[in-house]
Amino acid sequence: MNELSLKELTSVEDEIRTEEILAKTINWCASQCDDPEIRGVLEGIAEQHQLRVAEISQYFNRSHLTQ
Amino acid sequence: MPNNMDGRGLTDREMLQLCLELEKGRCRSAANVLMETSHKDLRDIYEGCFANAKDSQYDLYEILHSKGWYIQSQATNEDVTRVREEMRNNLHPDDQFM
């Protein structure tokens, strides 16, 4: 039984939004950089945040979370 | 509102510093949400979020440090001695502090 409190349910949405905003912001920072090495590092970090978005979303969608 | 920032975008160094601050903030927010979560699977996911932010933060710090853009003063022997003396004077007498 995956019982979820209302607070935890709200946190899922907040965490997805947070990771999404981070991914977009850091990706934008990467696009503004002149140094290709720095650009590559920032793009990689942005991608990691995007993967967290996918991970949280997929878990939430496929699991049978109940309140 | 007029300002004098037109055409003065952020430098690579400023971009790195901005992203470093973002990752530090993410470490704090991920730790906070983790402390407020008892659901096992969600805790595992948030631990992953924290680990990711922590690793990214250190990677960014290392780049800034390697380029001389993040200067830290090293503690001198005198600093170490002073702190050691302060701790020795403030610790319980039964405690051994070498």
Topology record:
The complex is a heterodimer of chains A (67) and B (98).
Chain A: H1 6-32, H2 36-62
Chain B: H1 12-35, H2 40-66, H3 77-90
Helix pairs in contact in B: 1-2
Specify the helix fraction band of chain A.
Answer: over 70%
- The global form of chain A is elongated
Helix segment tally of chain B: 3
Order of helices and strands of chain A: HH
Q: Structural class from helices and strands of chain A?
A: mainly alpha
Outline the low-pLDDT stretches of chain A.
none
Describe this structure in words.
The complex is a heterodimer of chains A (67) and B (98). Chain A is an all-alpha fold and 67 residues long. Chain A contains 2 helices and no strands. Chain A is elongated. With 98 residues, chain B is mainly alpha-helical. Chain B has helices at residues 12-35, 40-66, 77-90. In chain B, α1 runs antiparallel to α2 (40-66). The longest helix of chain B is centred in the middle third of the chain and has 27 residues, at 40-66. Classes of the chains: A mainly alpha (67), B mainly alpha (98). Chain A binds chain B through residues 2-5, 7-8, 11-12, 14-15, 18-19, 22, 25-26, 29-30, 32-35, 38, 41-42, 45, 48-49, 52, 55-56, 59, 63, and chain B through 9-10, 12, 15-16, 18-19, 22-23, 26, 29-30, 33, 36-39, 41-42, 45-46, 48-49, 52, 56, 59-60, 63.
Summarize the structure.
By secondary structure, chain A is mostly helical. Chain A has helices at residues 6-32, 36-62.
Task: Please give a handful of descriptors for the protein shown.
heterodimer, A: 67 residues, mainly alpha, B: 98 residues, flat
